[in-house]
Amino acid sequence: MDLSKLYRTLGMDEFLVLKAMASLISKYEYVPLEILEKKVKVPPKKLGRSILRLGKINALIKGRGSSYKITFLGLDLLAIHSMMLKGIISAIGTQIGTGKESDIYNAVTLEGNSVAIKFYRIGRTSFQKVLRRRSYLVDKMNWMVRSITAAEREFNALRILSEYTDYVPKVFGRSHHAVVMEYIVGIELQKYFSPSDPLGILRKILNVLRVAYIKVKVVHGDLSEYNIIVSKQGNEEKPYIIDWPQYLYVDDPCHASLLERDIKYLINFFKRRYGVVIDFRDALRFVKGEIDEV
Ligand SMILES: Nc1ncnc2c1ncn2[C@@H]1O[C@H](COP(=O)(O)OP(=O)(O)OP(=O)(O)O)[C@@H](O)[C@H]1O
Ligand SMILES: [Mg+2]
User: Fold this and answer.
1) Mean pLDDT, to the nearest integer, of 100-124?
2) Residues 6+ apart with CB under 8 A from 95
3) 3-state DSSP call for residue 228?
4) Range with the lowest mean pLDDT among 54-58, 78-82, 123-127, 212-216?
5) Is 127 exposed, middle or buried (0-12, 13-18, 19+ CB in 10 A)?
6) What CA–CA distances, in Å, run from 151 to 73, 211, 244?
7) Binding site membership of 97 for ligand 1 (Cβ less than 6 Å)
8) How close is the Cα of 145 to the center of ligand 1, in Å?
9) Residue 213, C-beta contacts closer than 8 angstroms, at least 6 positions apart
10) For atom 26 of ligand 1, which residue has the closest CA?
11) Domains of the chain by start residue, with CATH
12) How far is CA 257 from CA 209, 266, 277, in A?
């Protein structure tokens, strides 16, 4: 069953249970029933019924004795509920994308804007890979707490970046591990084979990196053809840079090597795919603001 259908099967008591479970995820992997009873102020019989209902749809998993663990599905349903209550979205649609560490759904805001919701799923890829790519997540937090942290980071990065550039999705809100952002109608650069102005696209991307570096003082850190969506608006090709949770501030000692990696990768991709050549050193100096044209 899809998320929107499952969402409609739940009532107020189930959301109270999910909310209590979510508030305890950094303390317990499995929450003992007596703790849950204290936290959720509904009569034990009603609580039991809600737990049963949530278990049936796999929003909760039963552990040893009487203890329960919230699942990513449970957290998704809670995030949807809270975004509905806050008026960030009015309806949730279907899944439109899958990343290594996220599922993307479409949704609609109260004003009727089409938005994308990114539900983080840190831990879906292998443990080692995640640690390598998401180096900011190094302590012993569990995957759900990490997913919430990633959503907070991406929300904050996009919020500040979009004050300075149009070429990142605007954000509408966040709840738990979910970020609501502008839905970019376009094609991933990875699937974009015949651009009309590849050099123009490359320059626009470098300009976003420059604004990020100079104005926001961050580097993306995971730039690739998979994290760029080209949106055609009239004759214009607009490259949107997505997927920012691993960004680093420029005062982080690792930022320089990541910035160089991002730019080198980008330059090589454009050379290989489109035969467009920009010198790496010049691109780096442009992004850092040492020269004004590239
Ligand atoms: N705002 C958006 N508008 C339209 N499509 C989007 C948006 N955000 C993400 N997508 C789609 O979903 C895919 C996954 O998104 P994203 O790269 O942010 O997730 P991820 O799990 O971090 O990815 P990765 O596989 O790189 O780890 C994207 O490649 C893109 O196709
Ligand atoms: Mg990605």
Assistant:
1) 95
2) 2, 3, 103, 104, 105
3) strand
4) 123-127
5) exposed
6) 16, 22, 9
7) yes
8) 20
9) 219, 250, 259, 287, 288, 289
10) 99
11) 3-74 (1.10.10.10), 87-182 (3.30.200.20), 187-287 (1.10.510.10)
12) 14, 14, 21
What are the structure tokens assigned to 271, written together?
Answer: 């050379």
Q: Which residue's CA is the nearest one to ligand 1's atom 18?
A: 243
CA 232/CA 174 separation, integer angstroms:
27
Per-residue pLDDT reduced to its tens digit, 178-193:
999 999 999 999 999 9
Long-range contacts (CB closer than 8 Å, 24 or more residues apart) made by 198-205 = 198/270, 198/273, 198/274, 198/275, 198/276, 199/276, 199/278, 200/237, 201/230, 201/237, 201/239, 202/266, 202/267, 202/270, 202/276, 202/278, 203/294, 204/167, 204/238, 204/239, 205/167, 205/239, 205/241, 205/266
Q: Tokens 């599922």 sit at which residue? A: 103
Confidence of residue 138 (pLDDT cuts 50, 70, 90): very low
Amino acid, res. 208: V
pTM of the predicted protein model:
0.93
Facing residues of 117 across strands?
105, 180
Nearest residue CA, atom 27 of ligand 1? 100
